[in-house]
Automatic annotation (TrEMBL), chains A, B:
Alphabetical list of Pfam families matching this protein: ArgJ
Enzyme class: transferase
Subcellular location: Mitochondrion matrix
HAMAP family in the cross-refs: ArgJ
Name of the protein in question: Arginine biosynthesis bifunctional protein ArgJ, mitochondrial
Provenance organism: Mycena chlorophos
Record's comment on post-translational modification: The alpha and beta chains are autoproteolytically processed from a single precursor protein within the mitochondrion.
Keywords: Acyltransferase, Amino-acid biosynthesis, Arginine biosynthesis, Autocatalytic cleavage, Mitochondrion, Multifunctional enzyme, Transferase
Purpose: Catalyzes two activities which are involved in the cyclic version of arginine biosynthesis: the synthesis of acetylglutamate from glutamate and acetyl-CoA, and of ornithine by transacetylation between acetylornithine and glutamate.
Primary location group: mitochondrion
Family: Belongs to the ArgJ family.
Record-linked InterPro entries: Arg_biosynth_ArgJ, ArgJ-like_dom_sf, ArgJ_beta_C
């Protein structure tokens, strides 16, 4: 019997996880939208006093600020999700503040959890400049971390109060350092703060959009607009100084989400806390009317395209920093009857444990790719017309491994060359229609098991 | 920045995978059904000459032999699946032989793959005793192993021919050793041969049922009857000496599958090759009429219940020997509106990478259990009525961790005690109906990544 157990005594040789430090970007102060104050502090949710765990973000614009969000569709929505959803709904898509803690998700915490999330919102409201609006609440809430544990609410409230403008402890600011502090406070198992910014022009006025997100694990978002929302803990916050009507902001965000955060997977897990929100405060042009799809489709389309491109940037950062990830893999499914079919197959390939362990092993195991694709019911696909190829990111020629249902005599050297790159693609042509979808995923390593086999301790 | 990268230099301490040798069972020769000859040989699909890679199973009964099967629902069905499906269909549910190879799945091998599978069937037909039946083909085919590689068909055909009764190399037999050889030839990454037998009585006649299966990885079956079949590579073969009509054999197998193999998951992967088949040769009572649901419901119900219980035994063995598994976990979902809802949630929990890594880490992370459950759309569930508990296998008291939506102050010592057992359960009460479903799953370890990160080499 001894040979049956030979694997038991094997030793595991561990590939080092490559540093992702080069994806952290230092930006000029001028890259950021006007009219926001931000900071990140250590409030005491996490033990280590060097680690930031509370972010405060305030819109200080004289204009009203529009807010839109996409929340997890999980049946067990965390308290901060329920609270933020309610505020957005009561305010008709207006909010001026955001408070975020990492280290504890405040999820499945019962009645007390809701009280805690409300307390965070109310405490942050006190930091905002006075407003003549009729709204009772102004601040949205996000939490990320362990599920089922209560927040150390007193420490958090104290952390928020320390940012009062009259306190010397306040570190709220609008420069790069302030934005970076906020981005750092979002982090859980992330290895670098995810902060990006870009500028765009509509009718001669220059606007800025900037934002941060966090991810790493429990990442397979399928978020929808408020109260209708399915998957990930992914938190994202996008801030712009353009003026956009609440309804059009939500429409643009929902569109962007379907082409960005809803097309990434780290581990196929939908969290109780996933939230991406966008604030638009109009500070770049205080007298401009709000962009709205029904009154100025052209301006709206530019904004929607910019928001989408920016959301894709932020979403990809999460995959790059996926827990234990050593690869960034673009999965492209072509020739599907509908976009939904293509998206479903790309999602299945991107979440397959066997595909992802093969990617980690730099093994061009296209059989697993096909097997995963085939596990999605799709009656119109004829296996004889299906092709698979690996696409290098360095501009060199892609490698067909299955052509019209027949396996190629694969050049394993070349396959290894492609798969040893940090970035590459897998392309599958179904020849059953003209729709396509793109997904971004990472590999599945020992490090993922290590991080998640011992997360709470 | 250095703290963001601290995990990169961490060392991984690896828990040894417990030996599963005690699940291998030696059985008396008398435990097996009459009228079958079996063997397992080394044909050369696998490199190591000590490893069996070809099983031949023949029904030698004078009676006609009924056959039924459930195949993978994968869109890219392997050649042996297509060939077996066609034979069963042409013969109206009759077949007398089975030939199985491990080491190569003969999947996505194009036209040549089909020719190879047919050649295996035809070559094995020649080993069968002459028959007066009008059928052109008698032998079903199964393959398991790497996808997208061609079979070494000449070696396989030579291996089959070596079992001709006039050859001194023939090792076909009906004793325990012969059954064990066949079971060993099914194995891929399995660590022990999976062979079980049981007896049952219908109206005073004693029948026997025995069988073998293999699994380990790519296990999340969702198999259906021929030509309608969705998920796993799982191969199973069940042989009985009862006489059952083809139609009732298929009905009974489909029923049994839904309560056994379709309720297990190792890694959530549906393979191109999954097949479970059953042969019923009537050898125990040559003059008995075939059991049929329409003519003798009582006898049929006994047979169906026995087949189901046996299929559950075989299915659980696959989970016990899941690739890298150190735990055997029973997931019980209660209080669902429908069985399908309960099954869907149990399946989601059983495939969650975060739940499975927590199980490996012996971490009572019930938040992940709930988060996974919540990712399945289920509008009727009120989080305030949901409870979760961990159930030890040693008869001691179970541990409630979430009671009616409120987290308990969990006794972590006791939780650790339960989770350090090899067998335990997770029970989730939805309080949204009266249906329940049970799933069997395993944990997700470094060893899984090792096995699958380097499978082909």
């Amino acid at each position: 019997m001894s040979r049956f157990f030979k694997r038991l005594s094997s030793t595991i040789s561990i590939k080092p996880i490559p540093s992702k430090a080069h994806h952290h970007r230092v930006l000029p102060d001028s890259a950021f939208p006007a009219g926001y104050l931000l900071t990140g502090v250590h409030a005491g949710v996490k033990k280590n006093a060097d680690v930031l765990d509370l972010a405060v973000i305030l819109s200080t614009s004289q204009n009203t600020t529009s807010a839109a969000a996409c929340f997890t569709r999980n049946a067990f929505k965390a308290a901060p999700v329920l609270v933020s959803d309610q505020i957005l709904s009561e305010n008709g898509g207006r909010a001026r503040g955001l408070v975020v803690n990492s280290g504890c998700a405040n999820a499945v915490t019962g009645r007390q959890g809701l009280d805690d999330a409300w307390a965070m919102s109310i405490e942050t409201d006190a930091l905002l400049p006075p407003s003549t609006s009729r709204f009772k609440h102004h601040t949205l809430v996000m939490s990320t971390g362990v599920i089922g544990q209560r927040l150390p609410i007193d420490s958090i409230l104290k952390g928020i109060r320390s940012q009062t403008s009259t306190e010397s402890s306040s570190t709220l600011g609008s420069d790069y350092a302030a934005w970076e502090r906020a981005a750092k406070a979002f982090m859980t198992t992330d290895t670098f703060p995810k902060l990006r910014a870009r500028a765009f022009t509509i009718r001669g006025t220059e606007y800025r959009i900037a934002g941060m997100d966090k991810g790493a694990g429990m990442i397979h978002p399928n978020m929808g607009p408020a109260s209708t929302a399915l998957h990930a803990t992914l938190l994202g916050c996008i801030l712009t100084d353009a003026a956009v009507s609440p309804r059009s902001l939500q429409t643009a965000l929902t569109y962007a989400m379907d082409r960005s955060f809803n097309c990434i997977s780290v581990d196929g897990e939908m969290s109780t806390n996933d939230t991406v929100l966008v604030l638009a405060n109009g500070a770049a042009a205080p007298n401009a009317v709000e962009i709205d799809e029904s009154t100025d489709k052209e301006a709206y389309d530019v904004f929607k395209a910019e928001l989408t491109a920016f959301a894709i940037d932020l979403a990809q950062l999460v995959v790059r920093d996926g827990e234990g990830a050593t690869k960034f893999v673009t999965v492209n499914v072509k020739g599907a009857p509908t976009y939904e079919d293509a998206h479903r197959i790309a999602s299945r390939i991107s979440t397959s444990a066997l595909v992802k362990t093969a990617l980690y092993g730099e093994d061009a195991n296209w059989g697993r790719v096909l097997s995963a694709a085939g596990s999605v019911p799709l009656p119109n696909v004829d296996p004889k017309n299906v092709s698979v190829s690996f696409v290098p990111s360095d501009g060199t020629k892609s490698l067909g491994v299955l052509v019209n249902g027949e396996p190629e005599n694969v050049d394993e050297e070349r396959a290894k060359e492609i798969l040893s790159l940090e970035d590459f693609g897998i392309c599958i042509e179904l020849s059953a229609g003209s729709e396509e979808a793109t997904y971004w995923t990472c590999d599945f390593s020992y490090e993922y098991v290590r991080i998640n086999g011992d997360y709470r301790s």
